[in-house]
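A reminder from the course coordinator: this example appears on the midterm review sheet, so study it carefully.

Given structure:
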């Protein structure tokens, strides 16, 4: 029966007006306002808006009319109904069908707690869709027999669509508020990081200078024990300075203040220079390149990108295992790319971790500590060049990181 049938249209419009007047609020508050509007329109003794909670596999009355029967329902714990227990609320949700009865006490499929605890005589339930997906149901209850009519059923089915819109609107508002709060926290944290890193570097510089002066005296006076301690201190300061540089670069990348100056770079010799600087007796970096590959890049930033990826490979490699680097030019996505593949012989990247390796502060499995900014910065530098860095498992080897930068010819063509 249509909601616009005689005797129903005025009630529907009046209730719709109340539903539209519900202010933007959290989901339980909005649904409670909607339940009160429906209770007033139908003279029900209780109205519940149940939504499915996957974590509990239950239907939860997030919104209930502010009536004595609703308060009793909460005291009896009947506002949370596990799907496994069955009952008419669960039936409406699972079937998507409207349910109406004027003799609930003699319904063998209703829960005994609802019949004996709440003493409900008549019930009317309709499915509740939010954003085109069934998320719960509306249940109206009366302490009187044969209370709800066909007109009531048609009216509540129509009103349920508006209640679903209210739920969708409330969830959207909550999502926007959460995201705004999180972004505000992140922005504040990044600002603190940047200020702290900048100030600490100003303190570290004179300390480092003084330590070098003391080291020079220790070397002149032949004090080997002091020299060892001073070298350890200077190495610690060097690592701290590198960490602060990473924090500052992260802040610049996230704020859009990270600048690059492009010029032609031949990747084969570029990779060999980086490999020569980072190779050790325990981890030789072997570069293989068939042909010259020229890209458009910022030499300093691209070196930082490659060094971070190579350092990560060394940190995950077993002792005396080489790191292999392959430089090539490929055609992908209809354009030319310079490609650097960095392959280590470590344990590889577990499939569950692959989506997270480029996130900030991800450090799983790497020797020597670190705060997990190297790969994050490397990928962001590549992206600033119009490229990317991706990770996968290399069959029979370990991990493979592939840096992709637009070839110079392609870059020039786009700039024309």
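Designed residues:
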């Amino acid at each position: 029966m249509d909601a616009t049938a005689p005797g129903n249209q005025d009630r529907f419009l009046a209730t719709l007006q109340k539903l539209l007047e519900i202010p933007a609020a959290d989901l339980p508050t909005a649904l409670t306002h909607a339940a009160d509007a429906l209770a007033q329109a139908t003279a029900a003794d209780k109205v519940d808006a149940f939504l499915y909670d996957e974590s509990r596999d239950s239907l939860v009355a997030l919104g209930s009319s502010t009536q004595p029967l609703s308060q009793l329902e909460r005291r009896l714990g009947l506002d949370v109904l596990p799907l496994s227990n069955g009952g008419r609320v669960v039936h409406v949700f699972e079937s998507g069908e409207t349910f109406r009865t004027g003799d609930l006490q003699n319904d063998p499929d209703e829960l005994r707690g609802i019949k004996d605890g709440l003493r409900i005589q008549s019930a009317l339930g309709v499915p509740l869709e939010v954003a085109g997906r069934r998320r719960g149901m509306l249940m109206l209850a009366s302490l009187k027999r044969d209370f709800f009519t066909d007109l009531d059923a048609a009216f509540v089915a129509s009103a349920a669509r508006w209640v679903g819109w209210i739920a969708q609107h409330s969830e959207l508002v909550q999502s926007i508020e959460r995201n705004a709060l999180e972004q505000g926290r992140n922005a504040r944290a990044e600002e603190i990081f940047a200020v702290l890193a900048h100030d600490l570097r100003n303190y570290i510089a004179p300390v480092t200078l003084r330590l070098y002066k003391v080291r020079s005296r220790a070397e002149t006076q032949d004090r080997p024990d002091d020299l060892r301690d001073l070298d350890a201190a200077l190495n610690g300061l060097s690592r701290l300075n590198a960490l602060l540089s990473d924090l500052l670069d992260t802040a610049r990348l996230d704020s859009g203040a990270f600048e690059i100056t492009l010029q032609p770079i031949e990747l084969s010799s570029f990779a060999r220079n980086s490999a020569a600087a980072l190779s050790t007796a325990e981890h030789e970096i072997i570069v293989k390149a068939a042909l010259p590959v020229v890209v458009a890049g910022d030499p300093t930033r691209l070196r930082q990108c490659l060094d971070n990826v190579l350092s990560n490979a060394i940190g995950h490699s077993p002792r005396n295992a080489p790191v292999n680097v392959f430089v090539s030019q490929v055609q992908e996505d209809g354009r030319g790319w310079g490609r650097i593949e960095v392959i280590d012989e470590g344990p590889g990247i577990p499939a569950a971790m692959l989506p997270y390796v480029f996130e900030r502060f991800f450090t799983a499995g790497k020797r020597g500590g670190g705060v997990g900014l190297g790969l994050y910065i490397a990928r962001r530098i590549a992206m600033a060049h119009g490229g990317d860095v991706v990770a996968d498992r290399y069959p029979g080897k370990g991990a493979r990181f592939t840096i992709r930068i637009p070839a110079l010819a392609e870059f020039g063509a786009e700039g024309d």
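Residues 410-416 have pLDDT under 50 and may be disordered. Residues 150-220 form the longest helix (71 residues).
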